[in-house]
């Protein structure tokens, strides 16, 4: 996965306010490193004690446009002509909703100072993080060790292992084949029913009886060998080496995986009270996500 790494010396900075009497007041921005969004499109964050907010309105940008990032990739979007606001309020109890993007502002909120800048440049970094949530971290599914997750496809079904809920194509989900029995993150003790040195989640014949696991559906042909049990004392037929009946499978089961979009924002802003380059605004809360469902062609 190609990522952009940016290191900042500080996540907060000082601004200097000029008072009418010529004195300089030093104020420190000390917001959390995350933000929220609303409308089409405002990014904002608030804090208490003192009550403050920072927001940026994007005139010609939508959240949907920020999600136009290719699979397993990063999108860098630059935008100018935005409106940035730093505000202070009279009360520390700011509402959790309705402060921005509301047609009717809350009557309970009183703005003391509102500093606005037009023309600030924003750099938005969207990273698409994809995973099949099969119990094995995506970075460990680079089986050939070349740093490219997309060319590791154990079962040859066209879905790379890090997005394949059934890595070996035996119609038993990887997470159901005990890849990490004790949950310690060490996969060296993964279940290996036939003791052939290949863990069940990568073995298309789990019990080593010569019949593919996906073909051991003696009772119900529903792309789920787990519910075909001849001897309840042993368990499913695909784990019983004494049951060798073969009912050839005709399809793979449907797979699902998730796509999560991590959105980070950096600003170059200049207003009367402040000038700051590469300010880290933070990462969007409630990361947008999608569920992808796919049934691979059977082979």
UniProtKB/TrEMBL annotation:
Annotated Acidic residues bias: 149-170, 186-209
Region named Disordered: 136-237
PROSITE patterns xref list: PROKAR_LIPOPROTEIN
Recorded superkingdom: Bacteria
Name of the protein described by the UniProt record: Thrombospondin type 3 repeat-containing protein
Source organism of this protein record: Mariniflexile ostreae
């Amino acid at each position: 996965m190609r990522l952009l790494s940016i290191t900042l010396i500080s996540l907060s900075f000082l601004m200097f306010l000029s008072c009418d009497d010529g004195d300089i007041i030093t104020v420190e921005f000390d917001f959390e490193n995350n933000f929220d969004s609303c409308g089409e499109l405002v990014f904002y964050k608030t804090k208490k004690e003192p009550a403050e907010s920072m927001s940026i309105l994007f005139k010609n940008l939508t959240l949907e446009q920020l999600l136009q990032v290719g699979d397993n990739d990063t999108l860098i979007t630059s935008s100018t002509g935005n409106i940035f606001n730093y505000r202070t309020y009279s009360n520390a109890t700011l509402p959790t909703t309705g402060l921005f993007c509301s047609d009717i502002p809350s009557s309970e909120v009183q703005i003391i100072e509102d500093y606005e800048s037009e023309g600030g440049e924003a750099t938005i970094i969207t990273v698409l993080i994809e995973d099949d949530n099969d119990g094995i971290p995506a970075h460990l599914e680079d089986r050939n060790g070349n740093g490219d997750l997309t060319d590791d496809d154990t079962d040859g079904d066209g879905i790379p292992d890090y997005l394949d809920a059934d890595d070996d194509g035996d119609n038993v989900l990887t997470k159901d084949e005990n890849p990490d029995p004790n949950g310690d993150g060490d996969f060296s003790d993964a279940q290996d029913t036939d003791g052939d040195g290949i863990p069940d989640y990568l073995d298309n014949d789990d019990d080593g009886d010569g019949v593919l696991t996906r073909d051991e559906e003696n009772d119900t042909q529903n792309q789920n060998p787990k519910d075909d049990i001849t001897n309840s004392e042993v368990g499913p037929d695909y784990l019983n080496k004494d049951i060798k009946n073969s009912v050839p499978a005709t399809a793979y089961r449907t797979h699902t995986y998730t796509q999560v979009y991590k959105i980070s924002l950096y600003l170059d802003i200049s207003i009367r009270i402040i000038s700051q380059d590469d300010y880290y605004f933070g990462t969007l809360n409630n990361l947008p996500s999608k569920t992808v469902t796919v049934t691979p062609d059977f082979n």
